[in-house]
């Protein structure tokens, strides 16, 4: 499956001779990108509000939560329904190659004894040229980690995009 960005970069010359320049459409795309950024910021802030929540296997509240319930709750706050298990969440959305990972994407890991069986999930909150930061519920509670830390880099399986700009 090939990942194609939809309307990420749009170049229109602002002269009337360009048949592809449509001022109304251009500003609609800008408006959509603005609202998409707001949605993403909302989800990330919602996720950060869970920081330091203790881990509890099978838990789904701020008294104790596991990784898949954490992600499910974050997206549910924006009326997006996801499955309860991380292995099932990994089947939703669109596959994203590592070099195209963006804020809001979900990262899936195999942390158990089975090397390819997905059992952990986190959400990307920041991307820079050196690293990808994600928030997740680990056995230490809800915290922020880096994908390129040795442990997470070796456990990484795939990334999926649930939300995308149109």
Q: Which secondary structure elements does this structure contain, and how are they paired or packed?
A:
Layout: H1 23-48, E1 60-61, E2 64-65, H2 67-76, H3 86-89, E3 94-95, E4 106-109, E5 120-127, E6 132-138, E7 141-146, H4 150-155, E8 156-161
Antiparallel strand pairs: 1-2, 3-8, 4-5, 4-8, 5-6, 6-7
Helix pairs in contact: 1-2
Family: Belongs to the peptidase C40 family.
Pfam families: NLPC_P60
Keywords: Hydrolase, Protease, Signal, Thiol protease
What is the CATH domain class? Alpha Beta
Approximately how much helix is present in the residues?
25-40%
So what's the overall shape?
globular
The CATH topology annotation reads as endopeptidase fold (from Nostoc punctiforme)
Low-confidence stretches: 6-20, 26-31
Q: From the 3D coordinates, which CATH architecture would you assign? A: Alpha-Beta Complex
Largest sheet: 6 strands, antiparallel
Figure out the total of helices.
Answer: 4
Q: What is the typical, i.e. mean, pLDDT?
A: 83
Strand content: 15-25%
Number of domains: 1
Quickly give the structural class. alpha+beta
Pfam families: NLPC_P60 (PF00877)
Keywords: Hydrolase, Protease, Signal, Thiol protease
Protein name: NlpC/P60 family protein
Organism: Blattabacterium punctulatus
